[in-house]
Amino acid sequence: MSEPTTPSPSAPAPESVAPYGTGAQAAPQRRVRVPHLLAMKERGERWAMLTAYDMYTAEIFDEAGIPVLLVGDSAGNNVYGFETTVPVTVDHLVPLVRAVTSAARRAMVVADLPFGSYQASPQQALATATRFMKEGLAHAVKLEGGQAMVPEVELLVRAGIPVMGHIGFTPQSEHVLGGYKVQGRGSGADRLLEDALALEAAGCFAVVMEMVPAPAAAAVTAALRIPTIGIGAGPDCDAQVLVWQDMAGLRGGRAPRFVKKYADLRGDLLGAARSYAADVAGGTFPAAEHSFEA
């Protein structure tokens, strides 16, 4: 295994970025970079990551001060209407990544490598990641898997591509894992830590942990120099991520246990659409103020 190439958080802190969530847009803001995230871990500052798949959500979340946006293969469930993330292709995601990177002025944009686009070899992973960096203008990529993905991570990092890892429940492997099940219980906690340490040593700048017991996630967070990002991994991770449609209440049906809804966009949009339809049917829209004179 090659020596770690991830910058040490003990190195001199990078030029700071303005506090997140302040809404201050008067001065141009610097792009969030890997050293900023490492420095935040060292200072004990927690941060939020959200998915984004289009220019409007990217603009809004960027203005809100969300430092990292993930163009996830969760677009399969939330954009394309697939039952799982498995059918998602590189061609599905590249245009979404380009839309998000074109709109986000400050946030780091991370592109998911979809199923089948990187597992064959490190060279396949590099070819796929290169497309996201060149065509999508991504700032980093994310891939799923632990120790088995070390050769892929090492090659990408040597090529100058920042890599975010993803362990615990990995949606692309749901058929092998037997569905959406918590990972890392019992002896699985040791494997989780081994995977995390291997990804850090390979050069990952952060690691997502999905659907793992909170104590196991806390132990991994304490052991790593790089940030951990939890989704269903308890409160002790350095950061948290949610699919934005879950966070904002756009998706219907039962939400996963780890989701907290911060709005009811589904209800708001439903009410707006019904009001619009009623106005059209009743002849009250368009009114004079919505019409042009001769």
UniProtKB/TrEMBL annotation:
Binding site for 3-methyl-2-oxobutanoate: 73-74, 112, 142
EC numbers on record: 2.1.2.11
Region of interest: Disordered: 1-28
Stretches with biased composition (Pro residues): 1-12
Reaction(s) the record says it catalyses: (6R)-5,10-methylene-5,6,7,8-tetrahydrofolate + 3-methyl-2-oxobutanoate + H2O = 2-dehydropantoate + (6S)-5,6,7,8-tetrahydrofolate
Pfam families: Pantoate_transf (PF02548)
Top-level taxon: Bacteria
InterPro entries cross-referenced by the UniProt entry: Pantoate_hydroxy_MeTrfase, Pyrv/PenolPyrv_kinase-like_dom, Pyrv_kinase-like_dom_sf
GO molecular function, one term: 3-methyl-2-oxobutanoate hydroxymethyltransferase activity
UniProt enzyme class: transferase
Pathway in which this enzyme or protein is active: Cofactor biosynthesis; (R)-pantothenate biosynthesis; (R)-pantoate from 3-methyl-2-oxobutanoate: step 1/2
Record-linked SUPFAM superfamilies: Phosphoenolpyruvate/pyruvate domain
Subunit composition and interactions: Homodecamer; pentamer of dimers.
Protein purpose: Catalyzes the reversible reaction in which hydroxymethyl group from 5,10-methylenetetrahydrofolate is transferred onto alpha-ketoisovalerate to form ketopantoate.
Name the record gives this protein: 3-methyl-2-oxobutanoate hydroxymethyltransferase
Organism from which the protein derives: Phycicoccus duodecadis
